[in-house]
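Long-time lurker. I teach an intro course on protein structure, and each term I like to show students one example going from raw sequence to a predicted 3D structure in token notation. This year I'd like something fresh instead of my usual example. Would anyone be willing to generate the tokens for the chain below so I can use it in lecture? Attribution to the forum is fine with me.
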Amino acid sequence: MNSCGKTDIGTKRSENQDNIFVSDSPIGPLPNLYIVADGMGGHRAGDKASKMAIDITVDFVRKSTIENPIAVLKRAMLFANNEIYKAANEDPDYNGMGTTMVAAVVKEGMIYVANIGDSRMYAVEGDIRQITMDHSLVEELIRNGELDRKKGRNHPEKNIITKAMGSKDEIIPDFFEIELKPEGRYLLCSDGLSNMVEDDEIRDIVMESYSLDEAAQALIDRANYYGGSDNVSVVIITL
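-- Reply from a regular --
Happy to contribute to a lecture. Here you go:
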């Protein structure tokens, strides 16, 4: 596998509460591991939550003997959620902190994906498909037929998350499996990208850029060009 990950503070925020993890090499029983986490909370709490989520998840996977990607990701993320929840309740400075997470593993021609919150995974295979499903108020309104998807991009409550790591003592991630295509590029990102750049434009940048590094930087630059109102994190994977 080949990959590139980048994170950027954006143009409006005073700190970066996103964190990423990128490994094309084995982590414990998994052949590779890619994660984007977008923290939320007061000063430094979001950064702590997203860093805890990644550090605990990676450490759990590294020590695990479970070879099934979905099974190990589920247990790792449940454990990380519980640790973040305990930390948030033990220290007043971190009360209410939480984080989104999207994680992916490529194994034997398949991509296994887990997500909590509204950090996303896209498959860019000529066209673009959103693989994950946002855990957000706007997405619930869209699924219930109460809101048009195009109008959802500018909805005043589009940043309300309905599920986040650390918000409850038990949170179950969603899981997805897709077939890896040799010509495809697969994007994990925080909402600092997806809220600022339309899906079709994301597709064009990912497919037209020569290298993964150029594509990742171009995505961040475009989000910042459109206002950069949030931290921006991207991880791109390909064969």
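Some talking points for your students: The radius of gyration is 17 Å. The chain has one domain: 2-238.
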